[in-house]
Every structure is written in structure tokens, then in C-alpha cells.
Amino acid sequence: MDFTLSALPYPLDALEPYISKETLEYHHGKHHQAYLSNLYNLVKDTPFENGSLEHIILNSADSIFNNAAQVWNHSFYWDSLTPSGQGQPKGILLDAILSKWETFDLFKDNFTQLALANFGSGWTWLVLTETGLLEIINTPNAQTPFTTHSTPLLTCDVWEHAYYLDHRNLRAKYLEGFWHLANWEFASTNFIAASLLITPPL
Q: Annotated Gene Ontology MF terms (predicted)?
């Protein structure tokens, strides 16, 4: 795999005032980089060295898995954010959300409450299950729905390093800002792709 840290899909100051440049400098440049560097050192001179990130995640455990999954989760998280937040999705993803939660505000409230209740460090995800159902799930530490039969559509990192510089321990304040940055175009693209695999086109 490529052990070079990919650039963010936006400038470091693009998510302000909700996520500061300083937070991204540390979160992307230090934490994400550390997981990548750790992974390189762990898999060097092993059969994993030339494997894809996805292969490593699906076939490893313990420290190798933790660092590989955190690299994958963080890359997905950066794409889940955008400086041009759309407020809410459009089209078939919005229809699916309204079918499940009745209103978009109720969906947001459920997602936020689950993220607040995610004990310790972890991630909160909007996923599409293998049976075509939308679900909001929490995963602890480095765990990821990538290893399950659910397809991640959007994620929010609730490790404290995602928000401590901006909001100290106030996770709720960070989550308020998340909704201004949620990348619904990214989520919709993931939803459409996953839906096609569940229900073949006519």
C-alpha cells in the first residue's frame, strides 16, 4: 500500500469556524500521520507490506488492525466533511432518511444523541445494511463498519482529539458544527453505489 499521507480535500482553514485550522493540523498532520507511520513500521518486512489497506484491515488483528482501520476511518471522515455543507441530502438518500426517521431533524437528533452516548473514543456512522436498511451505529476505538456487511455512508469522529482544541470536552458543541460540514454529496454517492449492489437495476 501507499504509506504517504494523502492531502485533505480542502485547505486547512476551510472548515472554520466549526473545525479550526489548528485542529486539522494536529488531527490530520499528527494523529492520522501517526497511524500511517505506525502501520508502516508494523507491516514492514511482513506479507502485509505490499497489500492494500483494505486487505490489511480484513486480515489482521491487534495493533496492525487498529492502525490500519484508523487510517481508513480517518480518510473516510475527511471525505465526510466539506466546507460547502449542503444542510441535508437530496434525492433518494433524503427519501430513504425520511422513510426511516419521518423528518430530517429527527434523524439528526438520533445521530447526535447516539454520538453523544458513544462512550470513550470511537465513531458514529450512517450505514446501509446488506438488506438495504439505513442505520445509525457506533463503533468503539478503531472498529469500522468496513469489516461488516454494512456500507458506511457518512461518519463523525468522536475521538476527543477531533474536537478538544476547539471545544475542550464539549462534544455536543463539536456535533453542532458537524451538521454544517456534513458532506451529503459524498454520502449520496455511497448510498447509490451500495443500493445498486443490493437491488440490481431493471
A: metal ion binding; superoxide dismutase activity
